[in-house]
Amino acid sequence: MTFLSRFGSILMRFCGFRAFKTKAVKVAWYFCTFKHNKLNINTMRFLFLMTLFIGLVSCDQNSSYLDYSGSDSQLSGGTKIIPIQTALGTFNVWTKQVGNNPKIKVLLLHGGPGATSEYWEAADSFFPKAGIQYYYYDQLGSGKSDNPNDDRLWQVDRFVDEVEQVRIALGLDSSNFVILGHSWGGILGLEYALKYQENLKGLIISNMVSSIPEYIDYANEVLGPQLPDEVLIKIKSYEQKEDYTNPEYLGLIEEHYYPKHVLRMNPAEWPNPVLRAFANLNYPLYLKMQGPSEFGVVGDAVLKDWDRTNDLSSISIPTLTIGAEYDTMDPKAMKKMSELVQNGKYLHCPEGSHMAMYDDQKTYFQGVIHFLNLLN
After folding, report:
1. Is 354 a known active-site residue?
2. pTM, rounded to two decimals
3. Residue 294, pLDDT score
4. Which residues pair with 307 in a beta bridge?
5. Could you read off the pLDDT of 144-156 as tens digits, one per residue?
6. Active-site residue 142, yes or no?
7. Catalytic residue among 183, 210, 211, 353
8. Strand partners, 136
9. Which of 23, 37, 110, 297 is deepest in the core (most CB within 10 A)?
C-alpha cells in the first residue's frame, strides 16, 4: 500500500463513514487509492490536498452538529425543563434540542391546541441531514409539560408570553431563531411575530390561515358539501344537538373526514408519532380554545373570532406559509398570507392535507429546508 493510499484509509477512519460518503471525501479516497498511478504525481498531489481540505471541513461540520459540549442540556441528552412564570404561578415546560447549528435554530410549535410535539418526529428524517438545529417543545398543558387544572391559562396572549420565556431560556435571538408553527402552532407563531418579531430570523406558518371565521366558512361551504349527502346530514344533526362525543358522530368524522382532509392515509396506517400526539391530546384545553366541532370553531371557544389578516402587513421578517391541496383550510388563503406579509414565500403541497409533513412529506420538508437555507 502506497503512502497516499494509506493516508486515504486514515482519512476514512478520521472522518467516519457518514462524512466519508460526501463527494469531496470520496474524490480524495478515489485519488488516494485507485487512480494515482494514471496521473502526473504533482497533479495528483494537488488534487488530493484540495479534496482532503474540503473533506476535513465536511468532517468538522458533521462532528460539530452532534457536539453538545457547549449546551447546558448535555447531561440530559438535550432535554431542558423551563420554568414559565404566569399570573397564576410558575409551571414547567419540556423542550429537547436536536443538533447544533449557530445560524439556524428552529422551535417547533405543535397544534391542537393541546396536542403534543410527538408528531414533529417526522423532522428527524430530514433536519439532521440538512444540519438544522431544532427543538421539540410541549406547550404548557401538553405532553411532557405541566398541566395546570385552571382554564384561565388557556389564552393566546399567555401562550405568546410563554414562547418568549422559552426563547430566552434557550438563548435564541434574531441571528438564529426561527419558528415553525403548525395549525394552532401557526396561530401562536403569528401572534408571537406580531409582538416580538425583532427576536426572529424567520417565521414559518404551516397549514393555518390568518382568520378563524374564514376557516369556519371554508369548512361549512366547501369541505362539508364534498361529503356524501347522507353522511353530512347525520354529522350536522349531531352538531345541532351538540352531541359531539356520540360514537356514531366520531365514527363518521374518522371515516369520511379525517382520511381526506387531516391525514390522507388509512387511519389504521397512520404513523405512530401522529397516533401518540392525538391520543395524548389535552381535550379540556382543546375544548376551551377550539371547541368540539370538527367543522370549525363553535360556542364560546377562545379562538372563535380570531382574525389577524389586517395585521399581516406589519410582519417584515422572512416568512414562509405552507398550504396543502386537501387541507381543512383553504390553500388559496394560505398563499394570500404570503403576499400580505412584507417578505413572504409560499409552499404548496399538492398531495397533502392538514398533516402535510406526512402525506406530502418530501415536498413539505424539502420546501422548509430550502427556505431555511435562504436565511443563512
Report:
1. yes
2. 0.85
3. 76
4. 211
5. 999 999 999 999 9
6. no
7. 183
8. 96
9. 110
